Amino acid sequence: MSGNAIDLGSDTVTRPTEKMLERMRHAELGDDGREGDPTVRRLEALAAEKLGKEAGMFVPSGTMANLVALLAHTSRGGEVLSDPGTHIYRSEMGGIAGLASLFHRTLPSKRGQMDLDALREAIKPALTPRSLGTALIVMETTHNDAGGAVLPLSYMAAVHGMAQDAGVPVHIDGARVFNAAVKLGVPASEIARHGESLGFCISKGLSAPVGSVLCGSAAFIARARAFRRMAGGNLRQGGVIAAAGIVALEEMIDRLAEDHARAKRLAEGLAAVHPSLVDPTVVETNIVRLDVAKSGRRADAWVEALKGKGVLAGVWAPWQIRMVTHRHITDADVDRVLAAVKELWGR
Question: 327-339 pLDDT, tens per residue?
Fold first, then answer.
């Protein structure tokens, strides 16, 4: 946190717990790029167990987890299908083309869900004289660009079923998959079963300082390790940070419900300031998106004004602000944010 500022910019600002720091100080270490780091291996095994997969692999970031999944699932020149708001397409600097040598096709979508009829038409099991073969299908849950929306399990099952019929793998970008699981009231494995691989972050609401884990079959993870090395992701004595991830998976999942409750409370309070700011019914997890167009002031001006009130938020689009709740945000903080927005709205 920055002094007494209320930081709603992202849940990546969460600090490790005292138990995490203690585990980090006493972590058993090795060389993860050679004989293996025992603490990293324990984190990978725990992550795989949580997701119902055979194996896991620790990587520095969610972006690397996605890139390695793209490389490990595909060969050069194939087509990746997703909705247009996926993190892979929107926020990963073109790695899908520049590093993985893949083409990307986005499909008509609503709140992160691709139109199933459009998806069915777009899937091409193999290269033909008129079309590229479909190399991979990507789903994201919770869906960042859709304001933390959770993909319904029925939708995920339908997408995975189409993919299996065509012999095409599915990768799930599950950076906040445990938020999705808490919202749905199911184990994360019930989400992960609808993809051949899933990557998630331990460095967001789970409060560990660094890292993500990519999970899948043992054969897939064995292949992925080669691409992790290619991408510079071997971490040597990575157990120093993996130790915090173990605590995150042991102790920090269930409390995500508190973040969701505060996000809903924040959304309801914002709607009371002005109904155009946010529709509370679409706030499902810990992300709240504000539409400030009716105020006549752009998002960047709002973010600067809020900063002056001790509230940190992010610009999402010219007229949209993103606020993300996490374990450092209290009910009193929510009240303070609402008071700041109410005062600024009246100017």
Answer: 999 999 999 999 9
**Can you give the C-alpha Rg of the chain in angstroms?**
20
**How far apart are the C-alpha atoms of 150 and 176, rounded to whole Å?**
10
Q: List, in order of start, the domains of the chain with CATH numbers.
A: 6-12+255-345 (3.90.1150.10), 18-251 (3.40.640.10)
Residue 2, pLDDT above cutoff 70: no
Contact (CB, 8 A) for 242 and 234 = no
DSSP 67-80: HHHHHHH--TT-EE
For residue 3, what pLDDT is reported? 56
319's CB contacts (< 8 A; 6+ apart) are: 291, 292, 293, 298, 299
What is the reported pLDDT for 1? Answer: 41
> Averaged over 56-77, what is the pLDDT?
95
What the block records as the tokens of 191 is: 């989400």
Q: Which two three-digit tokens encode residue 89?
A: 């397409």
Beginning with the edge strand found earlier in the chain, give each strand of the sheet holding 103-106 in spatial order. 55-59, 212-216, 197-201, 170-173, 134-140, 79-82, 103-106
Please report the pLDDT score of residue 63 as a whole number: 97
